[in-house]
Write a structure and sequence with these properties.
Oligomer: heterodimer
Number of strands of chain A: 7
Order of helices and strands of chain B: EEEHEEEEHEHHHHEHHEEHHEHEHEE
Shape of chain A: globular
Strand order of the largest sheet of chain B: 2-1-4-5-6-7
CATH topology of the largest domain in chain B: Rossmann fold
Strand content of chain B: 15-25%
Number of domains of chain B: 2
Radius of gyration of chain A: 19 Å
Helix content of chain B: 25-40%
Largest sheet of chain B: 6 strands, antiparallel
Distance between the termini of chain A: 38 Å
Structural class of chain B: alpha/beta
Strand order of the largest sheet of chain A: 4-3-5-6-7
Bound molecules: zinc ion
Number of strands of chain B: 15
Shape of chain B: globular
Chain lengths: 182, 427
């Protein structure tokens, strides 16, 4: 499991062994329910409890603005800034030929379809500022060109090679506010 | 469409220096490095002479100093063996290199830990106690290493020559290292995509991004190499005749897969100029080529040869395919030179590199001489000695002391190395 090394794993195991039978059963049930309760939003492809998700279903949010990110965690990072009130689109990865990830493996066709059905005014490409993220942004913007939608990219300020997920809120807010036309 | 932060910084090594900076390595500690389980050694500010039989660890010691300067081993493909084989039994095999430096506040202490993980060798670098990246270390401490294996630079594979040239440029231009790293990442991705397109034909526009990045970093590398090769070539006009009794004139040729002449002659890399009277023919046009010129040629060639690259599933041109050749009288010494000629060319090249560092950075590199004296005749030995600056720090290894003049030995601190242990022989 990501983030859990052998030491942490054994600590967790010992903790569970000391817990009561009921407690362990409750945890086991919760894990068993995980896939039943969690769905992929049919609009934005974020991981959520409902479809459409709470963000897509929120009438207060600005539907003319779509922010394209690589992973669900990036949505959380941008939400934390409270500086953005548009919608999202989660690609579930970035183009990386080395790892065998091509455009057809990402939710790019779904984005095109979504935009044809519900035209937006602006698409913000918020993929990571590394080679793979840049390559994805360039590919998506090429695909979007015929639609005539305004395409922007996060501004300078995010360190090259860094992950969006780990950017602090101030930096991320500035990058959003300073976004530029591609 | 890049997301770079601000403009790129200027190169950190301007050509003009009011004060010459002289750095000295004062102390070296090694733990589990090659055959040294543990070593502590003080260096003299001028000459340190290490005497020992073969296979006692003399070369490893110079390699350690070189590693602290370049974060790279001069011996290719043996990086994993940097860690002492006995330490490999440990749960977390590691080697540690530590140096104390005098002469600049920017660098008082360097500490490199090499950790062996399942799939690679991990480097942890500290400068003055603060964790840093490789690119922060490279070029801080400068060193030029002479070793018997240098002959492979001339006689060996193009890969060895590219690697040599790249390491040399990294010491004088830190930006070059960044381009080198980025280029290799882009190249790997682009080759994967070319293979993918060969197996599953798809929209070749997917290449656009990788082409753009390849050209950007690749032209920077080629332009940097051309500039350095030009400068080395100029310095060699003075150095090489001295080492050959005025008999040989050595010219360098940067042989690129790209038609850098600017004319439409992609076959030029197969030809060697035979006209000695205009050795510049080897480098026609290249002297005036900026990274922008290279960029235009590179870009155009990628377009022209896209279909071929997809069919072959690999990137067919760029700095990773180029070569450096050595010509005497128009004859390619890499192929046709005698062992003696090749050995002398290697020494000339290293002397030129030393001059290059001096002229480009205003600093005196630490000179590392691994057992080269015994292979040289009296004349060449003297030539090498003459090239040493009095203020320069020199670390020499030798099997015997009798090839050194007594006056030279008087200035030197002499240590004996036996089986990874060291004792002082100086009075
Ligand atoms: Zn949604």
């Amino acid at each position: 499991m990501p983030g859990i090394g052998p030491k942490t794993a054994s600590r967790l195991t010992f903790y569970l062994l000391r817990s009561s039978r009921e407690q362990v059963q409750a945890l086991a049930d919760a894990i068993g329910q995980l896939h039943n309760k969690v769905v992929t939003c049919s609009m934005c492809f974020n991981i959520a409890e409902t479809s459409p998700c709470a963000i897509c279903g929120d009438a207060q949010r600005d539907g003319s603005l779509i922010c394209v990110v690589e992973e669900p965690l990036d949505v959380l990072a941008i939400e934390r800034t409270r500086a953005y009130d548009g919608l999202y689109h989660v690609l579930h990865g970035a183009i990386s030929p080395l790892e065998g990830v091509g455009p057809e493996d990402l939710k790019i066709a779904e984005l095109m379809q979504r935009l044809r059905r519900h035209p937006a005014e602006e698409v913000i490409l918020a993929t990571n500022p590394n080679l793979e993220g840049e390559s994805t942004a360039m590919y998506v913007s090429q695909q979007l060109a015929p639609l005539g939608v305004r395409v922007t990219r996060l501004a300078h300020g995010l360190p090259m090679g860094a992950d969006l997920e780990y950017a602090d809120e101030v930096t991320l807010t500035r990058a959003l506010e300073g976004r530029r036309e591609m | 469409m890049t997301l770079r932060v601000g403009p790129r910084p200027l190169p950190l090594s301007p050509n003009i220096h009011a004060h010459k900076k002289i750095m000295h390595l004062t102390h070296l500690s090694l733990t589990n490095f090659r055959n040294y389980a543990r070593l502590d050694l003080d260096f003299s500010n001028s000459i340190t002479l290490l005497q020992g039989d073969n296979a006692q660890g003399k070369t490893n010691l110079l390699e350690a100093v070189y590693y602290l300067a370049t974060a790279n081993s001069p011996r290719a493909h043996t990086h994993r063996e940097l860690i002492n084989w006995l330490a490999n039994e440990d749960q977390m095999p590691f080697a540690r290199l530590e140096a104390k430096v005098e002469g600049t506040d920017a660098l008082r202490e360097v500490n490199i830990v090499l950790l062996k993980t399942a799939d690679r060798l991990q480097k942890e670098i500290k400068i003055n106690g603060v964790k840093r990246r490789v690119r922060d270390l490279i070029g801080q401490l400068k060193a030029v290493l002479f070793m018997p294996e240098d002959i492979d630079l001339i006689a060996g594979s193009p890969e060895a020559r590219r690697r040599y040239l790249d390491t040399a440029i990294c010491q004088i231009d830190r930006r070059y290292y960044q381009s080198l790293q980025e280029y290799s990442r882009v190249l790997t991705q682009r080759n994967s995509l070319l293979r993918r397109l060969r197996e599953h034909p798809a929209d070749p526009h997917q290449l656009d991004f990788w082409d753009q990045r390849l050209v950007e970093e690749g032209s920077r590398l080629i332009a940097g190499r051309l500039e350095t090769v030009m400068e080395l070539d100029r310095l060699l006009q003075d150095i090489h005749p001295r080492l050959t009794g005025g008999e040989e004139r050595l010219r360098l040729l940067y042989r690129s897969r790209l038609p850098l002449e600017g004319k439409d002659r992609p076959e030029v890399y197969n030809q060697l100029p035979l006209d000695v009277s205009s050795p510049a023919g080897a480098m026609i046009g290249t002297d005036a080529l900026s990274s922008l010129d290279v960029k235009a040629i590179f870009q155009q060639q990628l377009k022209v040869r896209q279909k071929e690259e997809i069919e072959r599933g690999m990137t067919l041109m760029g700095p990773h395919r180029d070569d450096l050749r050595f010509l005497v009288g128009g004859v390619d010494m890499c192929t046709y030179g005698s062992r003696g000629q090749q050995r002398t060319i290697a020494i000339s090249l290293k002397l030129a590199e030393m001059e290059l560092i001096r002229s480009q950075t205003g600093e005196e590199p630490i000179l590392l001489l691994d057992d080269v004296m015994s292979e040289l005749d009296e004349e060449r030995r003297q030539c090498l000695m003459d090239a040493i600056n009095k203020e320069q720090q020199v670390i020499i290894t030798a099997t015997r002391l009798d090839c050194f003049a007594p006056s030279f030995l008087d200035q030197a601190t002499v240590w004996a190395i036996r089986g990874g242990r060291i004792e002082n022989l100086s009075p």
